[in-house]
Amino acid sequence: MSRPPFTYDLHDAILDTDNCKINVAYTVMAKRKQTEYYVNNKDFLAAVIQLRDYFLVGKEIGHQNHIESIRYYRYHHDRKTSVRFKRCYEYLGSCFDKIATHLSYKPNFVNYMFREDMIHDGVENCIQYILNFDPEKSKNPFAYFTQIIYYAFLRRIQKEKKQLEIKQKVLEQSGHDEVMHTDTHDGSMSGMNASYSDMGSIKENIETRMNR
């Protein structure tokens, strides 16, 4: 006897249930990932404008840089001003951190051992260059600061690459054995200090040539 149309046995039902569970799991994971790094662009823009205003006022009263302005408002004599600034500053810090962390998981950045340093550089650069963002020209701070973080990542990679090259040249010019130990060590660390002094001179010379 043939099976009625549009029917399936218990095995088919189990498979469908499993597939449903898998699809639900993927959906939950996708939503969780989006929420973890989600930044509301409207609130983000308002906070950027607010912090810019703080820094602009700081510049008008003679602050030399953003660090001086941050210190000034964090410990402002008016408690309400201090609290409002801290809320704005901390909120923006969390937004910059989310953007930088999310960007650091991209394939061209995720495998670097100094990824945390890249994130810190990105957040710092966003705060440092916040006055360069013009809300009259753009209402999309997310794209603007993502680009700042991207270039901060590239600078950190170049910096780490340069340091690695210097270390390799130090090893090549001083010799592996001299780096690891010295025959003149007499227990007083004098030989070790001499070895480190030589390595310092070599490193300084290499850095000077590379910076030309």
Structure description:
The chain has 212 residues and is an all-alpha fold. The chain has two domains: 37-160, no CATH class; 175-212, no CATH class. Helix content is 74%, strand content 0%. Helix 4 (79-104) crosses helix 6 (141-174) and helix 6 (141-174) crosses helix 8. The longest helix is centred in the last third of the chain and has 34 residues, at 141-174. The protein is globular.
List the helices and strands and how they pair.
Elements: H1 10-36, H2 41-60, H3 66-74, H4 79-104, H5 115-128, H6 141-174, H7 176-180, H8 190-210
Helix pairs in contact: 2-3, 2-4, 4-5, 4-6, 5-6, 6-8
Give a short overview:
The protein is mainly α and 212 residues long. Helices cover 74% and strands 0% of the residues. It is built from 8 helices and no strands.
Tell me the β content. Answer: under 5%
The helical percent reads: over 70%
Give me the count of strands.
0
- H/E order of the elements? HHHHHHHH
Counted up, domains total 2
Mean pLDDT: 77
Features:
disordered N terminus, 0% strand, mainly alpha, 2 domains, 212 residues, globular
